[in-house]
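Worked Example 4.2. Consider the chain below.
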Amino acid sequence: MLDIQQLPTLNATLNALSGVLLTTGYLMIRRRRIAAHRACMLAAFTASVLFLTSYLIYHANTGSRPFPGSGPIRVAYFSLLISHIILAATILPMAIVTLKRGLRAQYDRHIQIARWTFPIWMYVSVTGVVIYLMLYELY
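Applying the procedure from the previous section yields the following structure tokens:
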């Protein structure tokens, strides 16, 4: 059983896993391996939903952790955090629409939104790990 204090590490792991699955899914579609692409993207979405669930549980129980750094690192942290939060709020509906279009075989419409969804989702996944490292491992 996980202790509540272990959830940030789990969250970072789920973000990293999502990023790996997104990258693998992208490579699979570039190679025209549609079934593998679909499996990777559904797994990435599942990892992201598990992340969001764990994140909400953690913050509902512990609140926010203040960033202890000062100076330029503090500016960098909050710049990254703000962009991460804004894009994280937009990626969930985008991912749902992208997945829905792909699963409904609306491929032209799927590709149109996937070109935006993929880089934003990758950014959110990667910056989530960086934020974790800065907040929990740097200090």
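The chain has four helices and no strands. The chain has a mean pLDDT of 97. Compare this with Example 4.1 before moving on.
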